[in-house]
Design a protein that fits this description.
alpha/beta; seven-stranded mixed beta sheet; Metallo-beta-lactamase, Chain A; 293 residues; globular
């Protein structure tokens, strides 16, 4: 049986961040009638069983975008929501990615000795035991539903979570606004280390500005990885305006950049990041402006 011992913190009332052993951040919001699980990580451990330790309410699962490090444990749940533009990204059979990603993240987070996890038991998981292949019967029965702009998830007790599209990191990237706790969950739509490679920078900039326009509705932004913030602590106030500034500078043909190691795909060589203060934005030079420009 895969581990359920995820590091976690309840940072607001009935609101948890589960740390998937430095791989990804998973959020659980509990209302009076049901719970909402935001993302499912790369798939280390038994996330469903861990959630059931926190709440016995029915759980709705919504995926912020279709990258494997956010939907790897989704196969355990009978129903998930994902944006239709990212539906084709679902791949529960990519065991190679699920096995190598935790090692890559360990190198990035803790240097070149990820085996320290096993030898010193810093985290309660074993790569050879706790990354389980998807159960084909569960995958066959699973219902995959669309999540789009304007949808609302009613968790009961007045806790409403609203969906906003935020194309940029992927074409189907969304963000979720929990009005009760005034918290915005953005997946990988914002980070101090932001990847903008599959959509134009101009498109991403619109999503970031949309995020900024919602600022009167939230106090805190939580992204899908805590590698640039402590678990349970939101992104700091400079992250969003810096990301916007970088995108604007790239579109003007300006901005400073650095070359950094590629920790997830070392064979591809270093990556180029545009930089402002603590923010790094990785772009595809061939995708700066929208196609119709």
């Amino acid at each position: 049986m895969a581990t359920t011992l995820y590091p976690m913190v309840q940072f607001k009332k009935d609101t948890w961040e589960l740390d998937e052993f430095d791989c990804a951040s998973i959020f659980l919001l509990v209302g009076t009638e049901r719970a909402l699980l935001i993302d499912t990580g790369i798939g280390v451990g038994d996330l469903k069983a861990a959630v059931e330790k926190i709440t016995d309410k029915p759980v709705t699962v919504v995926i912020t975008h279709g990258h494997g490090d956010h939907l790897g444990n989704a196969w355990r749940f009978p129903e998930i929501y994902i944006h239709p533009k990212d539906r084709e990204r679902i791949n529960y059979d990519d065991m190679e990615h699920r096995m190598t990603y935790p090692v890559s993240m360990a190198k990035r987070m803790h240097g070149a000795r990820p085996t320290i996890y096993q030898t010193h038991n810093l985290y309660a998981y074993d790569l050879n035991k706790d990354i389980e292949p998807a159960d084909p019967e569960l995958v066959k029965k699973q219902q995959i539903k669309d999540v789009v702009e304007g949808m609302e998830f009613d968790l009961g007790g007045g806790r409403i979570v609203k969906v906003y599209e935020c194309e940029g990191h992927t074409a189907g990237q969304i963000m979720l606004l929990d009005e009760m706790t005034r918290t915005l969950f953005v997946g990988d739509g914002l980070n101090y280390n932001l990847g903008v490679q599959v959509t134009p920078v101009e498109t991403t900039l619109r999503g970031l500005r949309k995020m900024q326009e919602l600022s009167d509705k939230y106090d805190d932004i939580f992204n899908g990885h805590h590698d640039f913030r402590p678990v349970g602590v939101p992104l700091e106030a400079d992250c969003l305006p810096n990301a916007i500034d970088i995108c604007e500078e790239v579109m003007r043909g300006e901005g400073s950049y650095v070359s950094l190691p590629n920790f997830t795909h070392a064979e591809e060589g270093p990556e180029v990041y545009y930089v402002k203060d603590r923010n790094y934005v990785r772009i595809n030079p061939a995708l700066v402006f929208d196609k119709d420009r």
